[in-house]
Amino acid sequence: MTLQFFSAAFRPEDESRRQGAVDSLRVVSPTDPVLHELLGEVCMVLRTPIAMVTLSDGDVQRVIGAVGIEPIVLPRSIAFCSHTVVAPGGLLSVPDLHADPRFRANPLVAGGPCVRYYTGVVVRSGPFPIGALCGLDRQPHGPASFRQRAQLRKLAEAVADHIGAAPAAR
With 0-12 CB in 10 A as exposed, 13-18 as middle and 19+ as buried, what is 158? Predict the structure, then answer.
């Protein structure tokens, strides 16, 4: 028997101030029509059946809106979006999670929903990464294109604005 481990993401440097930004957001219903429309656009852009908006909140990741899956709460240690929050450039695209050594033993890949594809971009409140906007699939995809990445970033800005995040510094 071979033991396999997955890689949990690091936390952002200024975690307490980042958490303060999360705490200051307005509460959004998972059935919010604007959020649902934005998530539908994510599905179209990435050609995925699942899209989510997540917030990294303490030790958990809260899915505050979703298409193709019910909103859930996950430990941050297994959440793909936790990697996105600290990724260089604020974007993470993994064409096949099962083939990536960081994720192949993750319970969301190895069991449970058997997720194979993930692309996400950070959602910010001012300078703080508060969560992610992402698309997922149970089938592998090719890497996200430059155009898909640009469109996803614009949608993440719209999500941040809708949930009451502070404008990002330009």
Answer: middle
Spatial separation of the C-alpha atoms in residues 116 and 79, rounded to whole Å? 13
CA distance 150 to 159: 14
Query: Which residue stretches of the chain are H helix?
Result: 15-23, 33-46, 80-86, 107-110, 146-162
Name the DSSP letter for residue 170: -
CA distance 3 to 105: 9
Distance between CA atoms of residues 24 and 22, nearest Å: 5
**Average pLDDT by stretches of 10, the chain with 170 residues:** 53 80 89 96 98 94 94 91 90 96 92 93 94 97 97 97 80
Q: Which two tokens stand for residue 100?
A: 């990536």
Q: What pTM was estimated for this model as a whole?
A: 0.90
